[in-house]
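Journal club prep, notes for RB
We'll compare a predicted complex against what the paper describes. Inputs for the pyridoxal-5'-phosphate case:
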Amino acid sequence: MQTITNLSSQELMQLEDQYGAHNYHPLPVVLAKGEGVHVWDVEGKKYYDFLSAYSAVNQGHCHPRITKALVDQAGQLALTSRAFYNDKLGAYEKFMSEYFGFDKILPMNTGAEGVETAIKICRKWGYEKKGIANGEAKIIVCGENFHGRTVTIISFSSDPDAKGNFGPYTPGFVSIPYNSIEALQKVLEAEGKNVAGFLVEPIQGEAGVNTPADGFLKKAYDLCQEHKVLFIGDEIQTGIARTGKLLACDYDGVKPNILILGKALSGGAYPVSAVLADNHIMEVIKPGQHGSTYGGNPLACAVAMEALKIVTEEKLAENAFELGNIFRERMQNLVDTCDLVTLVRGKGLLNAIIINDTPDSSTAWDICVALSENGLLAKPTHGNIIRFAPPLVMTKEQLNECCDIIENTIRNFKK
Ligand SMILES: *Cc1c(COP(=O)(O)O)cnc(C)c1O
């Protein structure tokens, strides 16, 4: 078989187009290298990464400490399965328990698996601890959510693309508008007896960095406790310093009953996810009832521990908080002086701007193409919204340079 080397970006895009399923629509940029806040394409052009692989690369591309942890552990022991103990898992679980303040962790690999795990724990808890009649458990979710791509998860999606023609769907979910305490209260008062959980993103990243009112999470959490309902925080995108705190729920002083983490838990080196809960919840899962071949493997444990130590030691939450304020201030100035942008919103370094055009227009896409030509990579979400989420290892000087690029690109943009 011939191996293919030294192809141009055009040729590489053509290969993906011909041989890969068309389940994504990438910007026309082919990346070959990453370091910190930068990535390089095949032709050697350098870019600022303002997506960070959907916030998986909070620690920056190819962080040398994460790479070292990965390589060292890969040469030692990579996978045992959970049929046997391994010498990394216990230490990792203790570390996670102390780092996030929960009794126990259940390790998985991808974000969607983490969400599935949380749903299973929540339902089982509903039957065995809350006393819901068998088969009757409900979980409340929010409109415009994004929790992953499994059949059960897309069953409660409101996005026709995510959901269409993938049925039959998993029942047992009740959807309410995001950020509506009234709607949550209404469902809990009407059918709270059968509700096991409330699954929520503290900020809806995929929906366009939909940021709830201050206090929404706290009020929702309090209502859940009142009705003996588990508050499940999906912090796969918002967690691990992205929003300027370790967890976005920290802004409201809320500790979820079940916490789901993924993405930046590994700093982008490897798929690692985790579900955390206290004993009285986690104990409903017994041997044989849930698992994953790769979940909790030594490689994942080594990588995740190093990735989290970096978050603390390099003060990434503090940096995201500070740079986020500068970013929104500069973008607000753009909103105030340029007709093409109507709003900036977000927390820490998870932000979005809204482009003054319809969601089915190509304007936001065309702006992202122009941004890439000017050396900055971002991607539209929901048509006319552009999410900006750079690695958290960015410096103030770099951020200001990036704001210059964004401002100049948008001010000079011609539809
Ligand atoms: C990315 C994401 C997921 C799914 O994670 P995968 O690793 O892609 O399965 C779930 N919830 C949220 C909030 C996410 O951002």
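Talking point for the session: The longest strand covers residues 341-347.
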